Amino acid sequence: MRVVVQRVAEASVRVDGVIVGEVGQGFLILFCAEAGDADADAAFLARKIAALRIFTDDAGKMNLSLKDVGGGALVVSQFTLAAQWRNGNRPGFSLAAPPDEGDRLYRLFCDLLFAEGVSVATGVFGASMAVSLVNQGPVTILMDTRDPR
Known about the structure:
single chain; 149 residues; alpha/beta; two-stranded antiparallel ribbon
């Protein structure tokens, strides 16, 4: 499972010109389930992201979590994070979870993040979306449950 977490002042997602999800201070999370990912991956990421201390405290140190600052999360599905790009010039996406399983894991991740006490807004799985954000910092964290780091 791969996610890109961006610390934002605000973010929104539109489908057919209509805002379907938005958040003020918090995270924009681009989410990708890959073939073979499990519920435990979604649970692990939800716990880690809810506790991720990348907001600045009064001393200017990244010491505060999303919950500490009362922020929300806008979670947008993005299967292209599973891109295989090394060979040729057109990326392949066969490592992404099949759509039904990807949607299930996306919804599960959102539910688990909400259960961690985070306000969650979403895009529309499988839709063509226009995402807008104001990245703070910028701070961007890449997370992959298969990465041993």
